[in-house]
């Protein structure tokens, strides 16, 4: 009876400690999107595929909006073009949402990013080149490795108890 109780308690320990590890939610829980605004072709000196130091970016909390405004001193404003982090064109209502009555031809727009995006302003018939943005996940890892180690030790102890029982039964 003691051996059965020991086996049952070991199984309860293993299940009780290991299941919550795999069900752990992401730490923090807040989602941030990087928004890079490229205002004209001021970044041509940067190597291809890199984000130049002189290009600032904002981090926007999921669901929040950001306003961007064209620079009147750069000439006649033609409109905005929005790209994904990898340089491909962004899709409205998939990668971003435009708020209110704003359109991409207005000199000032308010958008809600749904992914990391690059917003480029075009002036005087010249299309602004996009840049690639590092979009790596910076979320901390989840789970508790100590619990995994304890579960592994408990499983090894269970195996040892089964082997010992069979050896003693001989």
Instruction: Please compute the radius of gyration using only Cα atoms.
Output: 28 Å
Mean pLDDT: 74
Give the overall form.
Answer: rod-shaped
Q: Uncertain segments of ≥5 residues (pLDDT<50)?
A: 45-50
Classify the secondary structure makeup into a structural class: alpha+beta
Sequence of secondary-structure elements: HEEEEEEEH
The strand count comes to: 7
Going across the major beta sheet, what is the strand order?
2-1-7-4
The end-to-end distance, rounded to whole angstroms, is 19 Å
Percentage of helical residues?
Answer: 25-40%
Largest sheet: 4 strands, mixed
Q: What percentage of amino acids are in beta strands?
A: 15-25%
Number of helices: 2
Task: Characterise this structure.
The protein is α+β, with helices and mostly antiparallel strands and 170 residues long. The chain has helices at residues 2-22, 145-169, and strands at 32-39, 57-61, 66-69, 77-84, 96-98, 108-113, 117-123. The strands form two sheets. Strands 2-1-7-4 form a four-stranded mixed sheet, with no helix packed on it. Strands 3-6-5 form a three-stranded antiparallel sheet, with no helix packed on it. Helix 1 runs antiparallel to helix 2 (145-169). The model is unreliable at 45-50 (pLDDT under 50).
Sequence-ordered SSE layout with sheet pairings:
Layout: H1 2-22, E1 32-39, E2 57-61, E3 66-69, E4 77-84, E5 96-98, E6 108-113, E7 117-123, H2 145-169
Parallel strand pairs: 1-7
Antiparallel strand pairs: 1-2, 3-6, 4-7, 5-6
Helix pairs in contact: 1-2
Structural features:
alpha+beta
What's the gist of this structure?
The chain is α+β, with helices and mostly antiparallel strands and 170 residues long.
